[in-house]
Write a structure and sequence with these properties.
The chain contains 18 helices and 14 strands. It is of the alpha/beta class. The strands form four sheets. Strands 6-3-2-7-8-9 form a six-stranded parallel beta sheet, sandwiched between helices. The chain has a three-stranded mixed beta sheet with strand order 1-13-14, with no helix packed on it. The two termini are 37 Å apart. The relative contact order is 0.15.
Length: 404
């Protein structure tokens, strides 16, 4: 499926977001809002743009392949927010928006005269989405806070990796993305409140708190039992069997059969139904206590059959399982194709390029990828002309002065 050609507008159509800030946490929130139909106007520094335009491990023709994903469904205008005239123009744009999204270090917006208390005087319905490392308050608020630091502080980094190695990071910027996702939830919650009261508010999403909220019962375990979770590699302690198991053709299949009834089906698939009645494996707690020996027993069996045969057996017996996918496996998978989880987007420089589709899927008003990532300042004339009434002469004056 090729998209980016005028699909349905989405449930947030009619809402306008002014996106400020750079890199990942704020812009990913903007991507989520844009995916569901909001008009996202991204403000970028003249002549520079968001550093995300250059980020990413692999580049095509020297250009970022991350930017087309995070900047889809957005409009780009240039504006120098460090100049008083640029700040005045920003206030005018914000006055015509529903959301202001920023991820600068706390205090920066106030320094520019763009703090919430300053803006709400003329725009009481404004919802200001603020994403930062440590939040807008507290003793660490004004510290520089990247996603990796938030992952470490929120507890995720300590539990990632193998116990024989130092704490690992995930292969993606999960802290930034989680903070952006929580920011999006907060923004839509604030929108519902505004619909009832007419009043806007601040959505304060801190990276370390977003990570902390994903840490399950980690805090409570320590509080009530003095237990500190450690790195456990491919398993969760006392949740068994749930691991990756080798096959005769050097593949790996993940099998999750930790529920009693599911384990019983696994035992039948293995041709060893007696395992389900064995006191060592009969219950969730007993399997957890004998996790290593159970994993070894299952691995000894899976090594005798191919991945295709093992996968077919797991499906036949109703046991949750799956292969460890990389992008090539995703692109070839019939389920990904049937649900259009990955789509092709027409890009003016790259041509047809594949990327993940909008999620989640809505039955009546689905989100879509309506436009590719914009060039720097591509929408200056459209946005400044349509929203602020700037004529060509005014645009040229601002451009010559380095304001846009």
């Amino acid at each position: 499926m090729t998209t980016g050609t005028g699909k349905t507008p989405g449930p947030l159509a009619g809402l306008r977001v002014i996106e400020m800030g750079t890199l990942l946490a704020g812009p990913f929130c903007g991507q989520l809002l844009g995916d569901f139909g909001a008009e996202v106007i991204k403000i970028e520094p003249p002549g520079q743009g968001d550093p995300m335009r250059d980020w990413g491990r692999e580049k095509s023709h020297g250009m970022s392949l991350w930017w087309p994903v995070i900047a889809r469904n957005k409009k780009s205008v240039t504006l120098n927010l460090r100049e008083a005239e640029g700040q005045a123009i920003a206030r005018s744009l914000i006055g015509k928006a529903d959301f202001l999204l920023e991820n600068f270090r706390p205090g920066t917006m106030e320094k520019w005269g763009l703090g919430f208390e300053q803006l709400r005087q003329s725009h009481p319905g404004l919802i200001m989405i603020r994403v930062s490392g440590y939040g807008q308050t507290g003793p660490y608020a004004k510290r520089a806070g990247f996603g990796a630091v938030g992952e470490a502080m929120g507890g995720l980094r300590y539990v990632c990796g193998d116990p024989s190695t130092p704490p690992s990071r995930m292969g993606i910027s999960i802290g930034d993305s989680l903070a952006a996702t929580f920011a999006c939830i907060g923004a839509l919650s604030a929108l519902h409140h505004r619909e009832k009261t007419g009043q806007g508010q601040v959505v304060d999403s801190a990276i370390y708190e977003a990570v902390l909220n994903m840490m399950e019962s980690l805090v409570t375990e320590y509080d009530k039992a003095g237990y500190i979770r450690e790195r456990t590699g491919a398993i969760l302690p006392n949740v068994a069997p749930s691991n990756v198991y080798p096959t005769s053709d050097s593949q790996f299949i993940l099998i999750a059969a930790n529920q009693d009834t599911v384990f019983k089906r696994l035992a039948e698939a293995m041709g060893k139904p007696e395992l389900a009645a064995d006191p060592r494996y009969a219950s969730h707690s007993s399997r957890g206590a004998h996790q290593k020996e159970l994993d070894d027993l299952i691995a000894a069996w899976t090594r005798t059959i191919t991945a295709d045969r093992l996968e077919a057996l797991m499906e036949e017996f109703g046991i949750p399982s799956g292969r460890i996918y990389r992008t090539p496996e995703m692109l070839a998978d019939a389920h990904f194709q049937a649900r259009q989880a990955i789509v092709s987007v027409l890009h003016p420089r790259f041509g047809e390029m594949k990327m993940q589709n909008v999620a989640p899927k809505l039955s009546a008003t689905p989100g879509t990828i309506r436009s590719p990532a914009p060039e720097l300042g591509e929408h200056n004339h459209e946005v400044y002309g349509r929203l602020l009434g700037f004529q060509d002469a005014r645009m040229a004056e601002l451009q010559n002065a380095g304001i846009i």
